[in-house]
Amino acid sequence: MTDDLRLDLLGPLRGWAGERRLDLGPIRQQTLLAVLALRPNQVISADELVELVWSDAPPSTGAKIVPPYIYRLRKLLPEGVLVHTRDGYSLRLAPGASDLERFESLVSAGHADRDKDRAAARLSEALELFTGEPFSGLAGHYLSVQRHRLTERRLKVLAERIELDLERGRYGDLVPELVALVEEDRLREQFAGQLMLAYWRSGRISEALDTYARTRQELIEQLGVEPGPELRAIHERILQNDEPIARPAVRDELPYDGAAFVGRDDVLKQVVDALHTAGPAVVAIDGMAGVGKTALAVRAARQLGDVYPDGRLFIDLHGYTPGHEPVSALQAVDRLLRTLSVPAERIPADLEERAALWRSELAGRRILVVLDNAPDSAAVRPLLAGGPRCGVLVTSRRQLTGLDATARLALDVLLPEDARELLAEIVGPDRAGSAGAAAEVVSQCGHLPLAIRVAGARLRHRPSWTIEHLSKRLDAEDRRLAELSTDSGGVSPAFALSYDSLPPDQQRLFRLLGAMTGQDIEMYAAAALADLDVVEAEDLLEQLVDANLLLQLRPGRFQFHDLLRQYARTLAPEPDAVRRLVDYYLYATAEASAAIFGSRLHPLPEPATVRLPEFASVAEGLAWIDAEGANVLATIRYAESSGALEHVWRTGLSVASCFFQRGRVYELDEAHQLSLRAAEGDAEAESRVLLSIGSLGRYRLGAEESLRTLLAARDKLPENADLTLRARLLASIGYSQAKLRPDEEALAVLDDALQASRQADDRSIAARVLAYLGVTYSDRLEFAQALTAYQESLAQGDLGVQPEVLNGIGECLLELDRVDEAVTALTNARDLGVERGSDYSLIYTYAFLGTAYARRRQWNEALDFGRQAVELAQDSDSTESQQNAYVRLAETLLAKGDLARARPHFARAMELAVVDGQESMILRAASGLARTSPAA
Q: With contact defined as beta carbons under 8 Å apart, do 548 and 408 qualify?
């Protein structure tokens, strides 16, 4: 069990299973375990493990070296701890199973505790977990970096604990510890400063000054620099014997935060708690324009009066204020010093000296500084307080990644119910109307507080308007931004300030993204849209995320807030941009389809003119379709509206097969409908689309409806159509005929299709026709001939049909009573089906495996596979696969002697078979019902 494993990383690597100490084996094996333990409960691919573990000596075998080491680790670790998934390996650790996790938990608890004694005790307990150099003796660049990180983390926590001890007046006790720390690293100014304070406050002024002199000498001799402003400030205070004394409280400068503040309880608590920490706190709030950053900051600051009794300062840095240049750091520090009543003649002209004086003035005080509307990290850094009792709360439209914040909060729009409450607060409950009408208005505002405030103000000041009238005005997307803007501000001016602050390359991409056809976009699509290199496009996307003009809901995928997207669409477009994007989705979908099915199912007219992702495996093609399928469909809709009809049906055909593979039936139907409309008037295109509809619809609509559609496709087929298309159409017609009646006529059509595929020299179609022949012979109960056809299909080497062919081979072997061979074939089919995400294929694989294991009388495995087949079948629209799954599970239960549980499954199979007119299944289900009858 995972609960039994404990690991020590904060020293030599050690492990226990319960009370038993584990022998962790050779160094490289320990290195692998340490890497997995540093990222517990995360999946790490084999390739990444090679890079992290063997970076000092990469093996010639690549990722193949990983499984043997994993095997050895599994043998010594408790069962279920080290697991393998499709994507890699994961070490499953229970909460608190590693000393590193316990260390971070104790540190967090110490930071959150407002009682200094308890906080210091928890930090001390955390530090005691270090038993030496983290994972000492283990090699590799990754572990070296992590070792350095954890060592620095320990020193930071140690400095925080010493700061708490200084605040608790334990000066004498600290001196021996600090002397050793300073001797260990004479260039670390923080510990030197703390030693100087401990000496000074113990009455040992000469030793404090001597510590400064020695530290200064070391810095000059080794680095050629003077001590930093913090150490110089402590030295100056000691020289002046300027022990902090009580000062009058600074006035409260917080602005009015408005009457209507709703929701945000969770984030408000996060901000308040983060500013309650024992050490110096720097909290950064970022978010898009109008999301309510300032209101949140001011509301939080008002709740912290008891924590910061010496004052709450507020300064607007005007990073995004119309008519104002951003306040420089030099100007901001001057303003803050004057707020603290520092005479003008004492304020230095140099920024560094001015910032040092600012930090010195804050020493010993408990002050909260709110820095609102910051343009960037550089404007904030000189304003940070150095004292352990001070807090800084920063708001910005940009993500302040260059700021060393103790807590960060990305503020999102309001929850729908909070947005409705804000609207009601502004207009009054009587004017807010029904919940549905209010929900519609706040949705049209994108749940953005600024937009809701503007909309609410318009409704409040127009007594004749109803909320339904306001909603109708907001419903027109081309007028929505105008409705949400005023002469003095509103949504569009706020967005314009953010846009205007961007450099030209970011502005251009922002404009072009307004034309994206789907709901989100990834870097290849953005590169096509903007005609850029992929890496450059990704960098620009990330920069727009930093500016909070773009959302990144998961790695690599970007989208707009609805109102920002509408704003982007008001800016100057580039007509060729959308054409490039439509081209991109046509060719990228075709490449993903080729990766999934092993060959290109539909030809394209010319090479791609845009950079495409590379799909190295079936899984990568499926992952792309899963992520991009909705965007592909949206692009097809756009192409139809813009008259790019060839793009519609070509893209629609490529994505339809992928949707079928993933069981996305509603999207499959829409892709087909759009393609058929677009192909009208082009006989060959219509034939291709009807072929796809008939082939992919066979499992859902039945063979009879499929055949009608395929015959219509044959009627549309031009005389000069290429032989490959003709062979595919013949194959599909023959298979649908065979599913209705597996007679000689159907076999003749399939034989014609096989000859056509060979004339076209297309092994992919030949493989499919041979698979169809295998199914037909199986339906005729001629299993030896069916097996031969399936084996010939497999020999064609077409990856796209292999799972289905292996299923057929497994079924034939079962019927020929070659059960062990059947299990082998079906296990291979399962592995391929899982790899390809082929749910339709897996329904049959699991059903056949259930039968195979029942023949072996391995009932647990048989029932498990049978139930998996039924579960997958229930999620599909294929009644044929459902019949097969139900009847085989029922037969397994019957063979086991569980007649009561078998009967309902026979009954369900019968019900479905009667609707479809499947005579062989009706007979099979009827036989099962007779054998499970209470009278039997």
A: no
The residues pairing with 88 across neighbouring beta strands, listed in sequence order, are 85
Instruction: Count the Cβ atoms, other than its own, within 10 Å of residue 517.
Output: 21
**Residue 678 · residue 649 · CB < 8 Å:** yes
d(CA 163, CA 279): 8
What six digits make up the tokens of 816? 């020929």
Q: What pLDDT was estimated at residue 279?
A: 67
Return d(Cα 85, Cα 202) in angstroms, integer. Answer: 60
Amino acid at 188: R
Low-confidence stretches of the chain (pLDDT < 50) are: 1, 244-250
Q: Are 90 and 43 in contact (CB under 8 A)?
A: yes
Distance CA 369, CA 392 (A): 5
**What is the DSSP secondary structure assignment for residue 64, as one 8-state letter?**
G
Each residue of 18-55: b (16+ CB within 10 Å) or e? eeeebebeeebbbbbbbbbbbebeeebebebbbbbbbe
Reduced to 3 states (helix: H, G, I; strand: E, B; else coil), residue 580 is helix
Question: 898: which residues sit within 8 A by CB, 6+ positions away?
Answer: none
Contact 635, 582 (CB under 8 A): yes
Task: Decide: 570 and 511 in contact? Cβ < 8 Å.
Answer: no
Q: What distance in Å separates the CA atoms of residue 279 and residue 300, rounded to the nearest whole number?
A: 18
Closest CA to 772 of 698, 883, 715, 662: 698
Q: How many residues in total does the chain contain?
A: 936
Per-residue pLDDT at 286: 94
DSSP 572: P
What whole-number distance in Å separates Cα of residue 774 and Cα of residue 778?
6
The contacts of residue 310 (CB under 8 Å, 6+ apart) are: 247, 249, 250, 365, 366, 367
pLDDT digits (tens, 9 = 90+) for 51-107: 898 887 788 778 888 888 888 898 889 888 999 888 899 999 988 899 999 999 999
Tell me which amino acid residue 505 is. Answer: D
Estimate to the nearest angstrom the gap between the alpha carbon of 437 and the chain centroid: 33
Q: Which of 227, 196, 189 is nearest to 211 (CA)?
A: 196
CA distance 116 to 137: 37
Task: Return the pLDDT at 246.
Answer: 34
Sheet bearing 368-372, strands edge to edge: 312-316, 368-372, 391-396, 281-286, 407-410
The 3-class SS string of 226-275 reads CCCHHHHHHHHHHHCCCCCCCCCCCCCCCCCCCCCCCCCHHHHHHHHHHC
Residues paired with 16 in a beta bridge: 6, 21
Residue 553 CA: distances (Å) to CA of 192, 539, 558, 659: 44, 16, 7, 24
* 591 neighbors 611 (Cβ within 8 angstroms): no
| Cβ atoms of 492 and 554 closer than 8 Å | no
CA distances from 248 to 167, 241, 311, 366, 840 (A): 20, 20, 9, 12, 76
Residue 339: its pLDDT value, please? 83
Tokens of 606: 């010319």
What Å distances lie between residue 144 and 45, 53, 147, 172, CA to CA? 20, 11, 5, 36
Q: Mapping DSSP to helix (H, G, I), strand (E, B) and coil, where does residue 169 land?
A: coil
How many angstroms separate the Cα of 818 from the Cα of each of 177, 498, 506, 670, 794?
77, 71, 65, 44, 19
Contacts of 308 (CB under 8 A, 6+ apart): 366, 367, 368, 390, 391
Q: Where are the alpha helices (DSSP H) in 428-572?
A: 435-444, 449-460, 467-475, 477-483, 491-500, 504-513, 523-530, 534-546, 562-569
Q: In terms of pTM, does the model score above 0.85?
A: no
- Tell how far CA 715 is from the center of its chain: 48
Q: How far apart are CA 587 and CA 225, in angstroms?
A: 59
